[in-house]
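ARCHIVE CARD
Drawer: 12
Card no.: 0347
Subject: one protein chain, sequence and derived structure
Cross-reference: see card 0346
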Amino acid sequence: MADKQKDNNVNSGKIINIDGFIRHIAAGTEYYSSHARKITQNFITAAKGQNPGPAIKDEAKLRRIAAELGIQANDRNKNEIAAELGELILNELGKQQGELLFLRRAPSKRQEIWRKLGVMPTGIYHEIAATRFDENSGKSQDSLVQSVRCSLANGWGSNMIAAELQDIISGTPFPGLQKEGKSEMVTGFSPESIIYSLGGSFRGSLHPLIDNIVNGRIRGIAGLYNCHDSLINAETQVALVKELIKNDILVLFTGDDAAELAQAGLMVYEGAQYAGEGLHSVCEAVGLPPVLNMGTSIDNCRILIAASAIVQQAKLGDISDLPACIASTENLSDKAAAIGQCFVSSGFYTISGGTSPTNGNELSDDMEKMFGGMWGFETDPLQMAQKMVTHIDNKRKALGIDKARERVLYDMAMRRELT
């Protein structure tokens, strides 16, 4: 009853044509929850020595996450700790009360927003079922808010479970050169490896990144995600990324197809030649490409982890304060909707390459008032990039770190060259 009252308090306006959008989010979360369950079960069998595949590789991360979730490590061996951690996380899928454990990683102000609005998710399966129920009940206002709970259970639950446990089993990724057809790209940019790249084992920190955002060499950060090869317009994705880095925006990529970005030379150290002067100088100084490949679509949660860490180290209030935004050049598929709604509900301006599923302001103004993040929709990659640049500049101004910058304007000949 209390949750329903909260739902009524945070909804306004008439929601139109929203049912399909809600259905996408539930279906996308179902897919990722199945993946998380399989990885968790493999993790448990590996901990018990029943897995013929790889055993626990990243013991340091195992112990760190176990301590984070309240598991006593002390002098226990890694398999004992892993078995207890696996069972604890398996319970996250089906539990009926209490908050998901990884939600503690979000900035405290963000957690306060979620609690005030009554959208802190419980068990992942519970939120999927509740979303299905509300969507079929015809109460669209309730179902939109329930879809927020479902998407948070996906991003801060299923995807984070899958990414973190896979790291412990296979080893946390670190940068390395990988062949992609005839092209090359640097992969393996986890939050941990980004910190290492900025300072090594003893001096690793996000402060070099933060300092370069403050001084303007890096204008801001853009997270880019995709989920379906068949839905990706390669030329659009490349054009978007080139426009972003040209405007000194560092791109964090998670997706199931990075081949076109690799072929365009954007995921190697030499890709800095396509970046603006400020970003170019930072890439050269620390040895990073202008586009950091953080993994597949499941690894989009790494952007949430990195954003939360930046908020903490920069002593900001919330994710929504960051000069950062998210984009996907896809239409709204099941997985893309579930991921995007989580980013919006976590405080990000998130632009989709499709068209809005509603003809109202529910996903823009209403979501921004509630969560500090909002959906945007744009099919033209250069227009999408300019909206992202404007948003980032507005956030810089709000933080008092804005400086006069030369805007890069493109004529038609330059637009053709990008694609």
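Annotation on reverse: The chain has 18 helices and eight strands. The chain has two domains: 16-170, 189-418.
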